[in-house]
Amino acid sequence: MPGQRLVALAVLLAAAVTVAVFTFYSKRPTSSGMLDAAAFRNLTQPEQLGVLKGITDREGPEDGWQFVKSAYATAQGVIGNPHDLAHFVGGELYAAFGVAGITRCDPTFAFGCYHGVLDRALAVEGVAAALQARDECYRAGGSADPEASGCIHGFGHGFLTFENLDLEKALAHCGLLSEREQPYCWDGVFMEHMLSAPAASYPPDELWYPCSAVAERYRNQCARSEAQVLRFKRRLDTPAIAAVCLTGETPAMRSHCLDGLGFYIAQQSQGDIGVIQRGCGRIADRPAESQCITAAAGEIVFQNYPGWPLATRRLCGDLAPEFQSACQGRVQYIEKTYRPGP
Description:
Elements: H1 2-26, H2 37-41, H3 45-59, H4 61-72, E1 73-74, E2 77-78, H5 83-97, H6 112-125, H7 129-137, H8 146-162, H9 167-174, H10 182-196, H11 219-223, H12 226-232, H13 238-245, H14 251-269, H15 273-280, H16 286-302, H17 308-317, H18 321-338
Antiparallel strand pairs: 1-2
Protein backbone atom coordinates (compact mmCIF):
# COMPACT_ATOMS: atom_id res chain seq x y z
CA MET A 1 0.00 0.00 0.00
CA PRO A 2 2.73 2.58 0.85
CA GLY A 3 4.29 1.86 -2.54
CA GLN A 4 0.99 2.44 -4.32
CA ARG A 5 0.52 5.71 -2.43
CA LEU A 6 4.00 6.84 -3.49
CA VAL A 7 3.23 6.01 -7.12
CA ALA A 8 -0.06 7.90 -6.92
CA LEU A 9 1.70 10.88 -5.34
CA ALA A 10 4.33 10.86 -8.07
CA VAL A 11 1.63 10.80 -10.77
CA LEU A 12 -0.19 13.73 -9.14
CA LEU A 13 3.05 15.68 -8.84
CA ALA A 14 3.92 15.07 -12.50
CA ALA A 15 0.44 16.20 -13.54
CA ALA A 16 0.76 19.35 -11.45
CA VAL A 17 4.13 20.16 -13.02
CA THR A 18 2.69 19.59 -16.52
CA VAL A 19 -0.22 21.95 -15.82
CA ALA A 20 2.13 24.58 -14.40
CA VAL A 21 4.45 24.43 -17.40
CA PHE A 22 1.54 24.63 -19.87
CA THR A 23 0.06 27.56 -17.95
CA PHE A 24 3.39 29.40 -17.93
CA TYR A 25 4.06 29.00 -21.66
CA SER A 26 0.51 29.71 -22.78
CA LYS A 27 0.11 32.99 -20.90
CA ARG A 28 0.94 36.21 -22.64
CA PRO A 29 4.23 37.77 -21.52
CA THR A 30 3.47 41.09 -19.89
CA SER A 31 5.31 44.33 -19.27
CA SER A 32 5.44 43.35 -15.60
CA GLY A 33 8.17 40.90 -16.50
CA MET A 34 6.58 37.45 -16.39
CA LEU A 35 8.38 36.67 -19.64
CA ASP A 36 10.38 39.47 -21.23
CA ALA A 37 11.79 39.53 -24.76
CA ALA A 38 15.16 38.06 -23.75
CA ALA A 39 13.47 35.20 -21.90
CA PHE A 40 11.24 34.52 -24.89
CA ARG A 41 14.26 34.37 -27.23
CA ASN A 42 15.89 31.81 -24.92
CA LEU A 43 12.95 29.39 -25.10
CA THR A 44 12.98 26.40 -27.41
CA GLN A 45 10.96 26.85 -30.57
CA PRO A 46 8.09 24.59 -29.35
CA GLU A 47 7.90 26.70 -26.20
CA GLN A 48 7.91 29.91 -28.25
CA LEU A 49 5.08 28.57 -30.42
CA GLY A 50 3.12 27.78 -27.26
CA VAL A 51 3.51 31.38 -26.11
CA LEU A 52 2.47 32.73 -29.50
CA LYS A 53 -0.51 30.39 -29.72
CA GLY A 54 -1.68 31.66 -26.36
CA ILE A 55 -1.39 35.28 -27.50
CA THR A 56 -3.10 34.75 -30.85
CA ASP A 57 -5.94 32.70 -29.32
CA ARG A 58 -6.74 35.22 -26.60
CA GLU A 59 -5.81 38.58 -28.09
CA GLY A 60 -5.58 37.98 -31.81
CA PRO A 61 -2.80 37.26 -34.31
CA GLU A 62 -2.04 40.95 -34.78
CA ASP A 63 -0.93 41.11 -31.15
CA GLY A 64 1.11 37.96 -31.75
CA TRP A 65 2.86 39.61 -34.69
CA GLN A 66 3.62 42.73 -32.64
CA PHE A 67 5.03 40.60 -29.84
CA VAL A 68 7.40 38.71 -32.18
CA LYS A 69 8.61 42.01 -33.61
CA SER A 70 9.10 43.50 -30.14
CA ALA A 71 11.19 40.47 -29.14
CA TYR A 72 13.44 40.32 -32.21
CA ALA A 73 13.41 43.67 -34.04
CA THR A 74 15.43 46.20 -32.07
CA ALA A 75 16.52 49.74 -32.85
CA GLN A 76 19.93 48.32 -33.79
CA GLY A 77 18.53 45.62 -36.08
CA VAL A 78 17.16 42.07 -36.00
CA ILE A 79 18.35 39.69 -33.29
CA GLY A 80 18.46 36.00 -34.17
CA ASN A 81 16.47 34.34 -36.95
CA PRO A 82 12.71 34.51 -36.20
CA HIS A 83 11.59 33.79 -39.78
CA ASP A 84 9.80 30.57 -38.75
CA LEU A 85 7.94 32.37 -35.96
CA ALA A 86 6.80 34.94 -38.53
CA HIS A 87 5.55 32.04 -40.70
CA PHE A 88 3.50 30.75 -37.76
CA VAL A 89 1.89 34.13 -37.10
CA GLY A 90 1.12 34.48 -40.81
CA GLY A 91 -0.81 31.22 -40.65
CA GLU A 92 -2.76 32.54 -37.68
CA LEU A 93 -3.52 35.76 -39.57
CA TYR A 94 -4.96 33.68 -42.40
CA ALA A 95 -7.14 31.76 -39.94
CA ALA A 96 -8.52 35.06 -38.64
CA PHE A 97 -8.78 37.17 -41.79
CA GLY A 98 -8.39 34.88 -44.78
CA VAL A 99 -6.13 35.99 -47.62
CA ALA A 100 -6.60 39.61 -46.49
CA GLY A 101 -4.38 38.69 -43.54
CA ILE A 102 -1.48 39.58 -45.83
CA THR A 103 -2.31 43.26 -45.31
CA ARG A 104 -1.59 42.83 -41.58
CA CYS A 105 1.95 41.65 -42.36
CA ASP A 106 5.08 43.64 -43.15
CA PRO A 107 8.52 42.67 -44.51
CA THR A 108 10.14 42.24 -41.09
CA PHE A 109 12.09 38.97 -40.77
CA ALA A 110 12.58 38.41 -44.50
CA PHE A 111 8.86 38.42 -45.39
CA GLY A 112 8.10 35.41 -43.17
CA CYS A 113 4.63 36.65 -42.19
CA TYR A 114 3.56 36.94 -45.84
CA HIS A 115 4.82 33.45 -46.54
CA GLY A 116 2.86 32.02 -43.63
CA VAL A 117 -0.40 33.53 -44.88
CA LEU A 118 0.20 32.24 -48.40
CA ASP A 119 1.16 28.74 -47.27
CA ARG A 120 -2.05 28.41 -45.27
CA ALA A 121 -4.22 30.00 -47.99
CA LEU A 122 -3.01 27.58 -50.63
CA ALA A 123 -3.37 24.60 -48.30
CA VAL A 124 -6.97 25.53 -47.50
CA GLU A 125 -8.27 27.11 -50.72
CA GLY A 126 -5.94 25.68 -53.34
CA VAL A 127 -4.49 27.49 -56.32
CA ALA A 128 -7.69 29.54 -56.70
CA ALA A 129 -6.48 31.64 -53.78
CA ALA A 130 -3.39 32.77 -55.69
CA LEU A 131 -4.81 35.64 -57.71
CA GLN A 132 -6.68 37.09 -54.74
CA ALA A 133 -3.51 36.81 -52.68
CA ARG A 134 -1.57 38.55 -55.44
CA ASP A 135 -3.91 41.53 -55.23
CA GLU A 136 -3.46 41.66 -51.47
CA CYS A 137 0.33 41.67 -51.92
CA TYR A 138 -0.01 44.92 -53.87
CA ARG A 139 -2.60 46.54 -51.65
CA ALA A 140 -0.03 48.41 -49.59
CA GLY A 141 2.14 49.52 -52.52
CA GLY A 142 2.63 49.60 -56.26
CA SER A 143 3.78 46.84 -58.56
CA ALA A 144 7.42 47.94 -58.23
CA ASP A 145 7.32 47.78 -54.43
CA PRO A 146 10.02 45.38 -53.12
CA GLU A 147 7.60 44.45 -50.34
CA ALA A 148 5.24 43.05 -52.98
CA SER A 149 8.07 41.11 -54.66
CA GLY A 150 8.95 39.45 -51.37
CA CYS A 151 5.31 38.61 -50.88
CA ILE A 152 5.09 37.04 -54.36
CA HIS A 153 8.12 34.89 -53.49
CA GLY A 154 5.92 33.17 -50.92
CA PHE A 155 3.68 31.83 -53.69
CA GLY A 156 6.46 29.49 -54.75
CA HIS A 157 6.78 28.03 -51.25
CA GLY A 158 3.05 27.52 -51.09
CA PHE A 159 2.69 26.04 -54.58
CA LEU A 160 5.35 23.40 -53.96
CA THR A 161 3.84 22.43 -50.62
CA PHE A 162 0.38 22.27 -52.20
CA GLU A 163 1.69 20.00 -54.97
CA ASN A 164 3.52 17.68 -52.58
CA LEU A 165 6.98 18.70 -53.81
CA ASP A 166 6.20 18.20 -57.51
CA LEU A 167 8.50 20.78 -59.11
CA GLU A 168 6.91 20.70 -62.55
CA LYS A 169 3.40 21.33 -61.25
CA ALA A 170 4.50 24.03 -58.81
CA LEU A 171 6.47 25.93 -61.46
CA ALA A 172 3.49 25.70 -63.81
CA HIS A 173 1.31 27.39 -61.18
CA CYS A 174 3.75 30.31 -61.15
CA GLY A 175 2.53 30.88 -64.71
CA LEU A 176 -0.67 32.33 -63.22
CA LEU A 177 1.41 35.40 -62.41
CA SER A 178 2.75 38.05 -64.74
CA GLU A 179 6.04 37.56 -66.57
CA ARG A 180 7.73 40.05 -64.26
CA GLU A 181 6.45 38.26 -61.16
CA GLN A 182 7.24 34.70 -62.16
CA PRO A 183 10.97 34.65 -61.25
CA TYR A 184 10.13 35.58 -57.65
CA CYS A 185 7.71 32.65 -57.55
CA TRP A 186 10.24 30.26 -59.12
CA ASP A 187 12.77 31.31 -56.49
CA GLY A 188 10.30 30.37 -53.76
CA VAL A 189 9.62 26.98 -55.38
CA PHE A 190 13.31 26.04 -55.39
CA MET A 191 13.91 27.35 -51.89
CA GLU A 192 11.02 25.27 -50.57
CA HIS A 193 12.33 22.22 -52.44
CA MET A 194 15.69 22.71 -50.78
CA LEU A 195 14.02 22.95 -47.38
CA SER A 196 11.51 20.12 -47.69
CA ALA A 197 12.59 17.51 -50.25
CA PRO A 198 14.23 14.43 -48.66
CA ALA A 199 17.94 13.98 -49.31
CA ALA A 200 17.25 10.56 -50.82
CA SER A 201 15.39 12.24 -53.69
CA TYR A 202 18.60 13.86 -54.95
CA PRO A 203 20.51 11.65 -57.45
CA PRO A 204 23.98 11.01 -56.00
CA ASP A 205 25.75 11.46 -59.35
CA GLU A 206 24.04 14.73 -60.35
CA LEU A 207 25.28 17.52 -58.10
CA TRP A 208 23.30 20.21 -59.91
CA TYR A 209 19.95 18.50 -59.44
CA PRO A 210 17.23 19.82 -59.49
CA CYS A 211 18.59 22.65 -61.66
CA SER A 212 19.74 20.16 -64.28
CA ALA A 213 16.24 18.66 -64.47
CA VAL A 214 14.21 21.82 -65.14
CA ALA A 215 13.79 23.99 -68.21
CA GLU A 216 16.54 26.50 -68.90
CA ARG A 217 14.38 29.52 -68.01
CA TYR A 218 14.16 28.33 -64.40
CA ARG A 219 17.84 27.59 -63.81
CA ASN A 220 19.06 30.97 -62.55
CA GLN A 221 16.50 30.95 -59.75
CA CYS A 222 17.27 27.31 -59.04
CA ALA A 223 20.96 28.13 -58.72
CA ARG A 224 20.18 30.54 -55.87
CA SER A 225 19.34 27.53 -53.69
CA GLU A 226 22.09 25.25 -55.03
CA ALA A 227 24.60 26.08 -52.28
CA GLN A 228 22.12 25.07 -49.57
CA VAL A 229 21.23 21.89 -51.48
CA LEU A 230 24.91 20.97 -51.55
CA ARG A 231 25.32 21.71 -47.85
CA PHE A 232 22.18 20.11 -46.43
CA LYS A 233 21.38 17.36 -48.93
CA ARG A 234 24.91 16.46 -50.07
CA ARG A 235 26.70 17.30 -46.81
CA LEU A 236 29.48 19.21 -48.57
CA ASP A 237 31.56 21.84 -46.81
CA THR A 238 32.18 25.41 -47.99
CA PRO A 239 35.25 24.76 -50.19
CA ALA A 240 33.54 21.82 -51.91
CA ILE A 241 30.34 23.83 -52.40
CA ALA A 242 32.25 26.68 -54.03
CA ALA A 243 34.02 24.22 -56.31
CA VAL A 244 30.66 22.86 -57.50
CA CYS A 245 29.28 26.39 -57.95
CA LEU A 246 32.16 27.16 -60.29
CA THR A 247 31.11 24.28 -62.54
CA GLY A 248 27.75 25.90 -63.34
CA GLU A 249 26.90 25.81 -67.04
CA THR A 250 26.50 29.61 -67.34
CA PRO A 251 28.15 32.60 -65.65
CA ALA A 252 24.77 33.55 -64.18
CA MET A 253 24.31 30.14 -62.57
CA ARG A 254 27.82 30.23 -61.13
CA SER A 255 27.18 33.70 -59.75
CA HIS A 256 23.81 32.84 -58.19
CA CYS A 257 25.25 29.72 -56.58
CA LEU A 258 28.10 31.68 -54.98
CA ASP A 259 25.62 34.30 -53.84
CA GLY A 260 23.63 31.59 -52.09
CA LEU A 261 26.78 30.48 -50.30
CA GLY A 262 27.38 34.04 -49.10
CA PHE A 263 23.76 34.40 -47.96
CA TYR A 264 24.03 31.28 -45.82
CA ILE A 265 27.32 32.32 -44.22
CA ALA A 266 25.90 35.77 -43.45
CA GLN A 267 22.82 34.27 -41.81
CA GLN A 268 24.95 31.99 -39.67
CA SER A 269 27.14 34.93 -38.70
CA GLN A 270 24.28 37.15 -37.53
CA GLY A 271 26.32 40.01 -38.98
CA ASP A 272 29.70 39.11 -37.42
CA ILE A 273 32.31 40.18 -39.98
CA GLY A 274 34.94 37.81 -38.60
CA VAL A 275 32.66 34.81 -39.11
CA ILE A 276 31.89 35.98 -42.66
CA GLN A 277 35.51 36.54 -43.59
CA ARG A 278 36.62 33.22 -42.15
CA GLY A 279 33.73 31.38 -43.78
CA CYS A 280 34.18 32.83 -47.25
CA GLY A 281 37.96 32.75 -46.77
CA ARG A 282 37.86 28.95 -47.02
CA ILE A 283 37.22 29.33 -50.77
CA ALA A 284 40.46 28.92 -52.72
CA ASP A 285 39.38 30.92 -55.78
CA ARG A 286 39.89 34.61 -54.94
CA PRO A 287 37.15 36.08 -57.17
CA ALA A 288 34.72 33.48 -55.81
CA GLU A 289 35.75 34.32 -52.24
CA SER A 290 35.15 38.01 -52.94
CA GLN A 291 31.73 37.31 -54.41
CA CYS A 292 30.83 35.26 -51.34
CA ILE A 293 31.79 38.20 -49.09
CA THR A 294 29.93 40.65 -51.35
CA ALA A 295 26.75 38.56 -51.19
CA ALA A 296 27.13 38.23 -47.41
CA ALA A 297 27.49 42.01 -47.07
CA GLY A 298 24.24 42.52 -48.95
CA GLU A 299 22.52 39.84 -46.89
CA ILE A 300 23.31 41.41 -43.52
CA VAL A 301 21.68 44.61 -44.80
CA PHE A 302 18.64 42.67 -46.03
CA GLN A 303 18.34 40.82 -42.71
CA ASN A 304 18.86 44.12 -40.85
CA TYR A 305 21.40 42.67 -38.44
CA PRO A 306 22.65 45.00 -35.72
CA GLY A 307 25.60 47.14 -36.78
CA TRP A 308 25.29 46.41 -40.50
CA PRO A 309 26.37 49.92 -41.68
CA LEU A 310 29.81 49.58 -40.07
CA ALA A 311 30.07 45.86 -40.82
CA THR A 312 29.44 46.33 -44.55
CA ARG A 313 32.00 49.12 -44.78
CA ARG A 314 34.55 46.80 -43.19
CA LEU A 315 33.65 43.82 -45.35
CA CYS A 316 33.82 45.74 -48.62
CA GLY A 317 36.84 47.80 -47.56
CA ASP A 318 38.88 44.73 -46.68
CA LEU A 319 38.50 43.25 -50.16
CA ALA A 320 41.16 43.66 -52.82
CA PRO A 321 40.69 47.00 -54.64
CA GLU A 322 39.35 45.38 -57.81
CA PHE A 323 36.42 43.82 -55.85
CA GLN A 324 35.45 46.74 -53.62
CA SER A 325 33.26 48.59 -56.09
CA ALA A 326 31.00 45.58 -56.74
CA CYS A 327 30.61 45.00 -53.00
CA GLN A 328 29.78 48.63 -52.29
CA GLY A 329 27.31 48.71 -55.17
CA ARG A 330 25.54 45.60 -53.85
CA VAL A 331 25.25 47.08 -50.37
CA GLN A 332 23.96 50.40 -51.69
CA TYR A 333 21.33 48.68 -53.82
CA ILE A 334 20.04 46.54 -50.93
CA GLU A 335 20.06 49.52 -48.59
CA LYS A 336 18.15 51.71 -51.05
CA THR A 337 15.64 48.95 -51.81
CA TYR A 338 15.00 47.51 -48.37
CA ARG A 339 16.38 50.00 -45.84
CA PRO A 340 15.45 53.44 -47.19
CA GLY A 341 15.83 56.34 -44.82
CA PRO A 342 12.89 58.26 -43.38
